[in-house]
Amino acid sequence: MAWKEFWSTVPHVDVVSRRRTRIEIIFYFFAVVFFIYIFRLAYLQLFRGDQLLKKSEANFLRQGYCPPLRGRVLDCNGRVLAANRVVYDLMWQGAGKSKLDAKAKEEIDVVSSMLSQPPDLELIKNAERRRRQVVLGMDVPFSELSKLVERTSEFPHVRVANHAVRFYPNKDLASHILGYISRTNECGVAEGKSGLEKAFQDKLMGQAGMFRRVVTAKGEQLEEYVENKAKMGDDLVLEIDLDIQKEEEKFFEVGQSGAVIVMDPENGAIKALTSYPRFDPNRFLLPISGDEWKRDFIECSPFMNRAVAAAYPPASIFKLVTFAAGLELGIIDRETPIECQGFVSVGGRKVYCMRRWGHGKLSAKQMLAYSCNIGCYEIAKRISIDQLAEYSRRFGFGRITGSILGERPGLVPSSSWKLKMYGEQWWRGETLSVSIGQSYLLATPLQVIRAISSIFTGYLVKPRLLKGEEESYEPLAIALETREFLQEAMLEVATRGTARRFGGLTDFKVYAKTGTAQTISKARGLKLERKHREHGLCATHFQYKNEKPLAMVVLFEHTGTSVPAQAATENFLRRYGSLNRN
């Protein structure tokens, strides 16, 4: 009995084991919770620390961007073509009140009377409740702004904010060169949409800065500091001469269309380039209504740069290429006269000269001077279209010039091209049309001025718009004797031929070639409405006194004749001598 009583007083092994088990469970539970807590802290700190820090800072920090100043665009003499100007906006600073009091309403009434368009009252009420800023008026005139500044103490809610916007002081002058920009994005950076603004977006746009504001929970500003300063974009200095550009832009009137280029034939520096109709880049800095867009930017196609992105038949200017091919291949010579009866017979049909009753016997030089078609026809009867296409490409037709402005390559037809495009063989009669610059042949005014320049320099030069832009030269595969003949013929054009009006200019030596791009018969064309008439061209190489020579191409659309292009060129040359040039 004594043993049983003793054993009953000793704890049972199962009870001890259960207690140990409970202790272990509690230990492991707290251990797991501890490690989960440590793991969570490590995860939040190591993997989500930056994200959580930003969320924390968002409670008391407000981040904003400092828009950069866009780089300027200057002409060759440092005169401004595109820059920046400061504009002033009126802002409403909310005070955190649930509704507008009488004083605030009085402020709104005074400001509204000064603005062309009254501010949105609902936006002001919302800004008042949230302690936010809202725009009352944009680009407020300085005269109106001065009245408010004088009464600053009376208007505690009104603030004046300033920022820079793109500004084109000459409005639509050189608009196709400069292009235009979009309105700024959230970082205050504008994007170039055309012209140099687009081509050199990265160089011009600069780098936006950043600032931070420390605010209370109610949105009250405590402190502001700049993290990164905005960096202004780089300037562009052009070869464009503002004086020449201004004179060039006088060529066209409302309702006309065309293009003009003035270029240094020796180094390719473009001194002026105009396409008409033009547009004012300043207009794109503000909203444009649908009606305005249709009226001003759709119906008259002002965005098309007709100097580089539109291709036309080069007309009689191309006869220089045809005669060059004829001389180089020995088909004609400089002295042997050619009889012009007013037509030639090809394939049983008559192909007429521009002067249907004929010119009589003319030398090769005279045929170019009087723009007689028969000489070109005689060459075309003895040359293949592929040979003529080869000489066209030697003069730079059918391929881009290398300009930084977007350009079209034009078109030089060949037998393989026609077979590929139309599945037809090339006909001899079509070569006659190409020989006088018609048919499928297309060229941009920029290609024409490059070809004219090569006759005097002996090389094809890359047209350049920027100062310091890399120069590029390609030898013209034409004999010196042939180039001299073409020069003599162009001098004859300007003194006795189709452009003899230039012969009366004093202090000038002018070489010229005119052309009329006849897409329909001339007899019918003058009877049809303007949009169906032919284009008129005038290409010149001129030198004033002892100055450097310049090349010039003038294109007038739908004039039916080259006379307006000649008249515009003559007027420009008469004013050229008085320009202030360095």
Characterize the structure shown.
Helix 12 (319-328) packs across helix 14 (374-380) and helix 12 crosses helix 15. The protein is of the alpha+beta class. 37% of the residues are buried. It has helices spanning 2-9, 13-46, 49-58, 102-114, 121-130, 142-150, 175-178, 195-199, 201-204, 242-248, 290-298, 319-328, 364-369, 374-380, 385-394, 415-422, 428-435, 445-457, 480-495, 522-525, 563-576, and strands at 61-66, 73-74, 80-93, 133-137, 158-167, 209-215, 221-228, 236-237, 258-263, 270-276, 338-340, 343-346, 349-352, 360-362, 459-461, 473-475, 508-517, 535-544, 550-556.
Keywords:
single chain; 582 residues; alpha+beta; five-stranded mixed β-sheet; five-stranded antiparallel β-sheet; elongated
List strands and helices in order, with pairings:
Elements (H helix, E strand, L loop, with lengths): L1 H8 L3 H34 L2 H10 L2 E6 L6 E2 L5 E14 L8 H13 L6 H10 L2 E5 L4 H9 L7 E10 L7 H4 L16 H5 L1 H4 L4 E7 L5 E8 L7 E2 L4 H7 L9 E6 L6 E7 L13 H9 L20 H10 L9 E3 L2 E4 L2 E4 L7 E3 L1 H6 L4 H7 L4 H10 L20 H8 L5 H8 L9 H13 L1 E3 L11 E3 L4 H16 L12 E10 L4 H4 L9 E10 L5 E7 L6 H14 L6
Parallel strand pairs: 2-8
Antiparallel strand pairs: 1-6, 2-3, 3-4, 3-5, 6-7, 9-10, 9-19, 11-14, 12-13, 15-16, 17-18, 18-19
Helix pairs in contact: 12-14, 12-15, 14-17
